[in-house]
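Hello support,

Our group uses your service weekly, and this is the first time we've seen a run hang past the timeout. The protein is Septum site-determining protein MinD. I'm not sure whether the cause is the sequence or the server load. Input pasted verbatim:
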Amino acid sequence: MGISIAVHSSKGGSGKTSFSINLAFAYTSAGKSVCLLDADFKAPSLFNYMFPDSDRWLNDVLDGKCDIMDAIVEVADDTVAPGKLYVGYCNPDIDAVREMSGKDRKWQSKALQNIMGVKKKLFSSGIDVLIIDTGPGVDFTSVNAIAAADYVIMVTKPARSHQKYMEQIIDGIYIPLGKDYGVIMNKCHDNKPIAIPGLVDPDIPVVASIPCLCDIATRSDSEVLTVADPEHPFSKAVFTVVRTIEDCLSNK
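Update from on-call engineer: The timeout came from a worker crash unrelated to the input. Re-ran successfully.
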């Protein structure tokens, strides 16, 4: 059986999607077969990266219009070796975004069942790691992804609004759902995990702290740091997360 990871954030702008992509490549570099899904239905962005196009969407899967195997495409290049990488997108069209925003709770309940079905189908097809790049905050689709995950990564940054909302999400969603989770403190102005002393509960597991580095912003969207520069501080943080998840889930 594979493992499923939800990459979440309290607010937008934390670097969540970049982290998701690098996490996927970190697993493929270890020889894993990985599926990366964009479940940020209100602000999809995974399609902007240099991945293959697709004519089916995760929206269609959750609507019951197609199978997940029809909505994912393989990234077939040397960067994913020795593993394999498949990606699935949510529809970036503005009408599709509006439609998803208007879904009611009955649809969301059915969508959770479909997500669990997606997870089962992908694992039975040979996927080792499912990574779900969720939307930020407490949207129903994000909570569904979290509910379906074995481990949750909260990517946040050292801003008061991000960190206070992060604590509310942990207390209000992760803990009631019984989720194993870890926090990535991204874009720190120094190399300390907590940039606002006393603000974050010391019991919250901060897995990695990533300094704010200008060279990340200037790199090409097609460059994945865990592949291009495994010794980069950002890459090292991603590999730390991989080891943390493995240790956590192996002890269960």
